Amino acid sequence: MPVVDFGRTSEDYSKHRMGFPDAFFTRLARENVLRPGLRAVDVGSGTGTVARGLARHGCSVTALDVSASMLAAGRQLASEAGLPIDSREAPAEATGLPSGAFDLVTAGQCWHWFDRPAAAREAARLLVPDGKLVIAHLDWISLPGNVVAATEALMDAFNPNPPDHARFGCGVGLYPQWLRDVSDADFTPLETFSFDVLLPYTHESWRGRSRASAMVGATLPPDDVERFDAAHARLLAERFPHDALDIPHRVFALIATRP
Q1: Residues in domain Methyltransferase type (predicted)?
Q2: Whole-angstrom Cα distance, residue 45 to residue 65?
Q3: Which of 24, 81, 182, 238 is 20 to 30 A from 253 (CA-CA)?
């Protein structure tokens, strides 16, 4: 089984992988989950797309990830945006942070990579009473004949035996199983929401976004990544020649409260 290493994709990830849309953070603010002054921990932060969104809304943010290269890319992006984020190399299951010291824990596009029961227990340990855990996803949606379906078919051809979770949730973008994870860690009550959004990509940025996926750049050897990218460029030119691509995505979020 190939090892997944998103650190190998940090350049493409930081340049081409879009973060959660503004509407996601607006919804959290409307639900009073997100507000200025909160102490927040973003686990599995990667290049910090969620962490930066929290910081823009006035939170004091600690960003955690196991990949040093992803954190380095995130620090650069945060610096360019003028956002103070404390980035640390640590797993979601054992953060090393103090107990009961945070109002909000977020996990964006990463929960399936964790030891989920352990990560839920660690989030509960970090949070103050009535603190919130937000598990969120932003998944592209494959529809018959669309560019996502064509790209996924090409990924399957190059990576027919992907690692566990590499395509977790693809196609549907909903994660009801996460409710069991947080319920077992004594979070209650639970709320969920989802909505669809079109995200704009060019041919270049969609190729970069695809390379930054677990199915390609995080698992395939470099030569295979190059061959995939060349085949992807030909596919886009032949079947989707307009450079402006509207890629359908679905946002899903679970909001869990620590009693």
Answers
A1: 41-135
A2: 5
A3: 81
Reference 184, options 115, 86, 96; nearest CA is 115
**Cα 136 to chain center, whole Å?**
7
- Assess if residue 17 is contained within a domain: yes
CATH of the domain at 136: 3.40.50.150
* Residue 119, in any domain of the structure: yes
Tokens of 184: 């077992």
Closest CA to 47 of 24, 4, 17, 22: 17
Residue 223 lies in a domain: no
